[in-house]
Amino acid sequence: MADADILTIEGVCIDAKGRRGTSRIVQDVSFSIRPGEAFGLVGESGCGKSTVALAAMRYLGSGLSLTGGRILFEGRDIAAMGVSELRSLRGNRIAMVYQDPMSSLNPVMTIGRQLIEVPLLHGETDPAKARHRAITMLGEVRLPDAAAMMGRYPHQLSGGQQQRVVIAMALMAEPALLVMDEPTTGLDVTIEAAILELVRELRQKFGTSILFISHNLGTVARLCDRIGVLYAGRLVETGTIRDVFKTPAHPYTRGLLAALPDHGADTRRTGGHARLSPIEGTLNAADRARIGCAFAPRCGYVEHSICSTAPIPLVAVRSGADQVARCARLHVVATTAPARAAKPVAIAAAASTGGRLLLALDHLSKRYDLGSRFGSGSTTAVYALSDASMQARAGETLAIVGESGSGKSTLAKVVSGLIPATGGSATLNGTEIGTVAVDKRSADMRRRVQMVFQNPDATLNPSHSIEFALTRPLRQQRGLSRAQARTEVVRLMERVRLPADLLRRKPHQLSGGQRQRVAVARSLAGQPDLIIADEPVSALDVSVQAAIVNLLGELLESGELGLVLISHDLGLVRHMADWVAVMYLGRIVEYGPASQVFAGPFHPYTEALLEAAPRPDPDARAPAIVLSGSMPSPTQRLVGCVFASRCPRKLNGLCEQVPPPVHTFEQHTIACHLDLGGVVTQAS
Amino acid sequence: MTDVLPRLDAAAPDAAPILRAGQPTRWRAVFTTSPIATIGGSIILFWTLCAIFAPWITFHPPNKIDPMLIVDPYPSAAHWLGVDNLGRDMWARIVYGARTVLTVAPIAVLCAATLGSFLGLLAGYRGGWIDALIMRIGDTLLAFPKIILYLIIIAKFGASAFNIIAVIGITSAPIIARIVRAVTLDVKNRDYVAAARMRGESPLYIMLVEILPNVRGPLIVDFFLRLGYTTIAIGVLGFLGVGLPPPDPDWGGMVKETYAMLFVFPHMTLIPCFAISTLVIGFNFLATGLKEAGHDG
């Protein structure tokens, strides 16, 4: 069997040598990839998944060394290969696609030259033939006008197009194995869906094996045949995608799956917020060195006399099945009900509809004037936000969804006062705030709107302790004395479920999830009415996301606070939102209560977003709608529907020229030309 | 495929560095992990100790002229480094010269750092015409050849320690302002600054409390580099005869007074040159060590 495998990784161990001795980052990882198979490697950041992939190409960076096991590529040990043999292997037989396409492409060379280079380096002698192949390959990756594309430079392409070029380049040599390291992580959902579909098609066509590395279980489920789950550098479970997703055996795999917001349409309950099940604790550096199970400190099934005393081997989950897991208590774990079914639903009793009106946006607009170019008198303007109208109530979550560039972050900044609006109004408790910059607002008004930011690395000042970060807003916004602030800080830490001994630490000593909790605590310090959370969990690992989502949900239970959630993750939105606004190119295309928005009828854009969202379900069908193209430039003032250029259901001649009418279904509104039913009011 | 071979987790990371608590440990870490910082630090420590304990480690007053000694100016038991062209004890003059340079240079650089940081913060945070004004004035100042600038100012206002500090402070400030401005431009767009603005902090608070501490790393590295440059600058001024007024010992001045006799009595010139070089190398090594230890980022 091993002879037929493209890649066999056997008991691989990788050590990192640092200033303070060596540490093992990959421990005894074994898996194999058969011809034409797609193998997904998943795990949290720092679990060693990229390191394994680099080792498979013998590309380990300085300080990293393979200290155990073998890596066989088509039956040959890559450790024994010479430099020239290795070089021809890397170009011809293995190709790699990295996360950031911009850093994989040379910015000073045209796409064409970079593509033609590949066959010329690997045996092709005729440049004309190489060029022909490059153009064909650009067509294969569905890039429009392939011949013209050859003369372009990478910066002239959008992120999705760049990634397609990188994939084309990787496939030019017709490799036996394609290693993809988070190839869609930086991309929007709709583009991600298109890229995944493309990879799926190309795989069938060329029969390439794929090693697909991702932290996103949804993308893995969509693409892969088999999956390996890594934790702290150890493979904790492998098996076919269906087995692992349907009957996860290892407690960590179960935890990961249970931590995801459910994508099923029927889980949205009325009133209260369902809780997700996060995996408690964090991965410590010390866990890597544990003799027994590395997951034991976070495991709910742990029995230290069994789990922590001896190395745990991989054992078959069921006889006959291909699924193996590294758990000493598999039988106990298996007989307990799966965590997913045991998920507590609807814990809060208080119905959260009809809270006090906090925020009302009325035709809120933001235009950036870029000024005139020298000579020409005309000015360029970016229409970042146009005619946004919506409301947020206390005790409720208003979710704003859309791709990057849809204006959702602009909206957050206008409401928070970081940039003032240029038209329309936004009122908080009846007081105008939209056109008032934050330094012009009254102290009381500033206190009422707070923000939780996306990036946990930039949300806290690295120079100040956690205590300082929390004490300052307490003293400054609530005027507390030093002693009062000290007790209040401890209360805040309790509220976000953090131990008080973290107070003296600096942000770099905290994990991403802990930092994000501190950020939530800081936003709560002034007792605000409204919290704007801009992608609060998108930079966090899955197991940590759930805890932050639960925390935000809990805050709403008092009914005093409103939440504006900005997110591109429809799973999260479906889980949390009471009201949803879907934005595209600075405009709201659909708005209404979450239950109605997700029940349909849909705006074609909403429909595309829903289709594109990756689901952690291997049996989910392929998306029926895959959007092509990219968002038009926001410098144009479009007359018709903003979505017309990408809409799969466009009515030619109508959509581009005429502003879409608004369909109203109870409280749910859709701006579209299609006959969706409902009461139609002509747009202004 | 099932792995049944039991393996021992051999590679346990001994004392995994997870917690770094505060500044002192980091400074200690710089010296323990970077040999170059240790060498630089030792040289600086040597000259600092010399400067502090000057009266106790010298046996002749630095300005005492003794023409009789010029007969045999070379190093001897009584005069460790010999005497100079006027028969003054070289060891005493070098050690007292260290006093001069190690007071004037740090004060000058501190002045430059204070002025430069303030201007850089203001330019970076405020932007617009304030930024343009500050940076253009700085550029103009930097466009002048420094030595000529020194000569003009000191010729006009006279040679004194205060004037040297002022001239070095003013001419170095634009470079520091540029460093601080670059970091400020980056840091002011971070979310924690937005959070500070949203709770209504004053611009001064944001500049001094939220931004300035994050400039600390590059600023410290630059501080030591600049001490090296300033040591050279003070030497050059002394050599050109516009340094500290004689007869007080000044390394640059010592070179100037004796270089005509370089081939007759080389020690009179080379010893102060060596003193200047070691101190500059010491500052540069320490700066490099700090940079390696990640103090600039």
Write a structural description.
The complex is a heterodimer of chains A (684) and B (297). In chain A, 30% of the residues lie in helices and 23% in strands. Chain A is globular. The model of chain A is unreliable at 265-272 and 338-352 (pLDDT under 50). Chain A is an alpha/beta fold and 684 residues long. Chain A starts with 6 loop residues before the first strand and ends with a strand. Helices cover 69% and strands 0% of the residues of chain B. The relative contact order of chain B is 0.15. Chain B has helices spanning 22-33, 35-52, 54-57, 90-126, 128-143, 146-157, 161-187, 191-198, 203-239, 251-258, 266-292. Chain B has 297 residues and is an all-alpha fold. The interface between A and B is large, with 62 and 35 residues.
Mean pLDDT of chain B: 84
- Measure the end-to-end span of chain B: 46 Å
Radius of gyration of chain A: 26 Å
The largest sheet of chain B is: none
Strand content of chain A: 15-25%
Outline type of chain A: globular
DSSP strand (E) fraction of chain B?
A: under 5%
Number of helices of chain B: 11
Short summary:
The complex is a heterodimer of chains A (684) and B (297). Chain A has 684 residues and is of the alpha/beta class.
